[in-house]
Amino acid sequence: MTAHTTAPAQPQMIFVNLPSTDIARARAFYAGLGFPFDERFCNSDSLMVGVSDTIHLMILDREKFASFSPCPVAPGGTVGALVCLSQPSAASVDAFVTRALVHGGRDNNKTQEAGDFMYGRSVCDPDGNVLEIMWMDVDRALKAWGMAA
């Protein structure tokens, strides 16, 4: 196998697929967080939620989700993935969590703090999918860890 030495023609995209038992409820939750939808890919069994130009959450009803998976879908109340979303500041982490709670999310009561360079919290969407929300000042973190910035 040879190494790929040239950059792709356009940025690579990522689609994080998450199962849902109620697409309308999921739409209300993610809309309440301020995320846009690509309506071309939204219907009764799926939503395309835009996180950035290259990152999207695909919220799929459990049956459609299962049709893509070679393994059984994890039952409700279990976790198969943690989706970590960055925020521009520690205060914006708290604001995101507040919006999530207002729109049907659940606070996981897990706060991660490291000095003055990292802060994070964790919430579940209404289907129990875990969203880790974090802020980190990379330069300060590297300095604190004894690494060059």
From TrEMBL:
PANTHER family on file: BLR2408 PROTEIN (PTHR36503:SF2), BLR2520 PROTEIN (PTHR36503)
Full protein name: Lactoylglutathione lyase
Keyword Lyase among UniProt keywords: yes
GO molecular function terms listed in the Swiss-Prot or TrEMBL record: lyase activity
Lineage: Bacteria, Pseudomonadati, Pseudomonadota, Alphaproteobacteria, Rhodobacterales
The Glyoxalase/Bleomycin resistance-like N-terminal domain, residue ranges: 13-41
Superkingdom, natural source: Bacteria
Pfam families to which the protein is assigned, alphabetical: Ble-like_N
TM spans (from-to): none
Keywords: Lyase
